[in-house]
Amino acid sequence: MRLDRIRRSVQHGRPQPTGSTLVGYAALIEGLDAEARPPETPAVVLDRRIKAPVGESHICRDGFAQYGSHIAVPDTFSDHLTFALKHERLDLLALKRIFLAVPEPIMADHVRAAPTSGPRRRAWFLYEFLTGRRLDLPSANNGAYVDAIDPDFWQTGLPVNSPRHRVRDNLPGNAGFCPLIERRAAFETPLSEMSERILGAHLAGADRELGRRLVRRLLLKDSRSSFLIEGENPSNVDIQRWSDHISRAGEAPLSLDRMIGVQRDLLRSNRFIVPGLRRDGVFLGDRVDNMPSPFWIGARPEDLSDLINALIRADERLEGSEVDPVSHAAAVSFGWVFIHPLEDGNGRTHRYLMQHVLARRGVRPGGLTVPVAKAIWEDIQGYRDVLAQHDQPLMPLMDWRPTGNGNVEVLNDTADLYRYFDATEQALFLRGCVERVLNHTIPSEIDEVRRRDAYIAAAREVIDMPERQLDLFASVVMNNGGEMSKAKRNKIFQQMTDEEVSSLVSLVREVFSPPSDDSAEYRP
Q1: Are residues 323 and 397 in the same domain?
Q2: Which residues of 355-380 are buried (b: 16+ CB within 10 A; e: fewer)?
Q3: What residues form DSSP beta bridges with 32?
Q4: Domain match, 482 and 356 both
Q5: Regarding beta strands 400-402 and 291-297, do their DSSP bridges make them parallel or antiparallel, or are they unpaired?
Q6: Up-side HSE of residue 195: CA atoms within 13 Å toward CB?
Q7: Do the bridges between strand 64-67 and strand 43-46 make them parallel or antiparallel, or are there none, so unpaired?
Q8: Domains: count for the chain
Q9: What is the pLDDT of residues 296-339, one digit of tens each?
Q10: Does residue 153 share a domain with residue 224?
Q11: 481-493 pLDDT, tens per residue?
């Protein structure tokens, strides 16, 4: 099947370089009119030779991957597909849309032309995996087994042989849900071992009570942060209830019933929300003159059951793999929030899933819940950026209209947008959160506890005062720039002498100044 040579095009608002031919994914998408977004860096072959960096076959310039004229790509479907799978970053979403756009006999001819070729058998496997169609071809009898995806570049699932194609299926998910994550997002050392070692070093010489207090403090702070991310100011009851859920995350395998139970308890006081998979559309964004202005739209209601069941099966596969636990958590939790399966509570259940995966994968050092939500809240703009990085490029692929009740209705089939995505940036963000927790948050919290204990012990030498009031005194002083305000002195601490107040203020400054890096506020 021949494709027209594309010499002049605009890709992502950038004009194609003069004297070049579009190749690979971009050429296939344009030539087949496939409903897919071209690669972020489309490939072109120049009419001249180039001098590429050592070890590279191309140069990146003006938003294009530019190959020299020594790379020959004839104007056929087969040659462009071979180029894409050999030279370009694997894009399962684009690949599926390309496969759906090409006639089945053309794809069969691609395989039939070289049935023992590893790259052609790999393309054959990916075609049948993604489309669910079975090409009119006999099973392969010859040729060494090849990997479905490059294990040196991607994190992979445990390989399962596909005898029909003689391909090792090492994809990290299934045809219904399969995010990809680069290997560079993984920790070099197993996270469960590393986190235990780091926590042990921080707690060296401490008694067990300090460890128990640390677990409680971080759990409550993480729970509060999850509400703050949503712009809510939770009550102590809300925080305690949510912390109970987080502490039990991972006790049982992931299931939809479990997630709905978490949502139901989270929203128990909201009588306007129906728990479970939503029955209407959902969007994130603004309203202008009561008209929706979305920056992301969740999956269609009719697709939710299949998508979530596929996500749960992918979680099972990832749990038995060597995929890094944080990357696993990113794939499942961000996949969930992209789908947005619930009427409300998607954000907090998304972060609950992070804790679920980390717990299932053994990342609970000393019984401690890694306070990921706290780290996210401290880098809330980075969190928003990594969500937008995924959302913005896909919105043009959604055909939608506003409904009469201020919602949106999606008019085209968008399920694949939630099935196949690159979660590398989300995994890197989450890895950064975990690194900050291990290297900054935990030692900072331990320092706070020890400072507070030292303050209480020294304060008792000055005045016989309940611990609760001593904590309040320190909080008032530290939150007022190291001074006791006259108003609060007269209102709250009127029973103290001036000498006692002066001594305690000096003690607070000595113990808590400069404040720990985590915050300038005193928090017992």
Answers
A1: yes
A2: bbbbbbbebbbbebbbbbbbbbbbee
A3: none
A4: no
A5: unpaired
A6: 27
A7: parallel
A8: 4
A9: 999 999 999 999 999 999 999 999 999 999 999 999 999 999 99
A10: no
A11: 999 999 999 999 9
> Are both 282 and 402 inside the same structural domain?
yes
CA–CA gap between residue 360 and residue 366 (Å, rounded): 15
Q: Which two tokens stand for residue 446?
A: 């331990």
Coil, helix or strand for 73? coil
CATH code, domain carrying 212: 1.10.3290.10
Mark which of 82, 102, 122 sits at the end of a domain.
102
Q: Where are the alpha helices (H) located in 320-441, listed in sequence order?
A: 325-339, 346-360, 372-378, 380-394, 415-419, 424-436
Tell me, rounded to whole angstroms, the distance of Cα 483 from its chain centroid: 43
Identify whether 199 is part of a domain.
Answer: no
138 & 32 share domain: no
The token pair that represents 228 in the structure block = 């703050």
Same domain, 424 and 467: no
Strand-pair category, 408-410 with 400-402: antiparallel
The binding site comprises 344-351
Residues spanned by the domain of 379: 207-439
Same domain, 246 and 382: yes
Contact 300, 365 (CB under 8 A): no
Q: What is the DSSP string of 100-137?
A: HHS-HHHHHHHHHTSTT-HHHHHHHHHHHHHH----S-
Per-residue pLDDT band for 3 (boundaries 50, 70, 90) equals confident
Q: What is the pTM of this model?
A: 0.92
Report yes or no on 212 lying in a domain.
Answer: yes
Higher pLDDT, 271 or 186: 186
Annotated binding site for ATP: 344-351
H helical segments located in 249-303: 256-266
Last residue of a domain, one of 75, 102, 129: 102
Residue 514, pLDDT score: 59
Q: Do 382 and 257 share a structural domain? A: yes
Residue 133 domain-assigned (yes or no): yes
Within-domain flag for 276: yes
One-character DSSP codes across 194-218: HHHHHHHHHTTT--HHHHHHHHHHH
Q: Which residues are catalytic?
A: 340
Per DSSP bridges, beta strands 283-288 and 160-162 are unpaired
Q: How many CB atoms lie within 10 A of CB 420?
A: 22
